[in-house]
Amino acid sequence: MIEPGIYKEVMGSFPSGVTVVTCLDQDGGIVGITASAFSALSIDPALVLFCPNYASDSYPVLCASKRFAIHLLSAEQKAEAYAFAGKGKDKAKGIDWHLSERGNPLLNNATAIIECELWREYDGGDHAIIVGAVQNLILPETEVTPMVYHRGKLGALPAIA
C-alpha cells in the first residue's frame, strides 16, 4: 500500500500549471473547481482532460452542465485559484467574470481559456477523468505570466530563456 502523505509529497514535487474549470448551474450561477490535474489529450479531434475529485461539490454540476470553460491561470490569479479550491456556493464572490458567446462563465486575466463540451467521463479512482471536446480557444491580447503549483505553493513561472 502506498502511504497517501508520501504520495502527495512526491506528486507535489512535479510542477504543474493551475486551472479553474467553470460552468453555470441550473440557476445561472457560476460553479467551478481549481484543478492542477489537466492535460491536452488529442489534436484531432481536439480534446483536453481534467480530473475533479468525486467528493467535490462542483463535480456533479460540471457533469450535468455538459459544457465548461478551462482557465489556464495567470500568476496574478491567486485569489481565483484559492476561491475555487474551496467548498460552498459562493466561490466566485468578488471575482470578475462574464458570459462568453457560448454561454460559459469566463474569468478575466487568464493566460488562456479553453471552452469545451463534455465528450467522455471515465473513472479514475477517487477522481473522475473528464474529457472535453474543445469548442473555442481564447488567448489574451497581451502576454501574461502563467501560474505554477509546486510543493503546495502557487507562484509565477519565471521567463524561460
UniProtKB/TrEMBL annotation:
Pfam families cross-referenced by the UniProt entry = Flavin_Reduct
MF terms (GO), sorted A to Z: oxidoreductase activity
Keywords assigned by UniProt, alphabetized? Oxidoreductase
Q: Which domain of life is it from?
A: Bacteria
Tell me which InterPro entries the record gives. Flavin_Rdtase-like_dom (IPR002563), NADH-dep_flavin_reductase (IPR050268), Split_barrel_FMN-bd (IPR012349)
The Enzyme Commission number assigned here is 1.-.-.-
Q: What class of enzyme is it?
A: oxidoreductase
Q: Where is the Flavin reductase like domain?
A: 11-156
Family affiliation: Belongs to the non-flavoprotein flavin reductase family.
Name of this protein: Flavin reductase family protein
Species this chain originates from: Pseudomonas benzenivorans
